[in-house]
Amino acid sequence: MKNAAWLDPQEYPFGPNYFDAGPGRIHYVDEGSGETIVMVHGSPVWSFIYRNLIKGLQNKYRCIAPDLLGFGFSDKPRKWLYTPAAHAENFTKLIQHLQLKDITLVVHDFGGPIGLDYAIQFPENVKRIVVLNSWLWPLNKDKNIKQASQLFGSSFGRILYQYFNFSAQVLLPRGFYNSKNLTPEIKQHYLKPLSKPAHRRGTWQFAKELLDSQNWYATLWQNHAVLATKPMLLLWGKHDKLFRRSFLHKWRMHFLQAQVVELEAGHFLQEEKPAEILQEIKDFLKN
Question: What residue intervals traverse the membrane (predicted)?
Answer without folding.
Answer: none
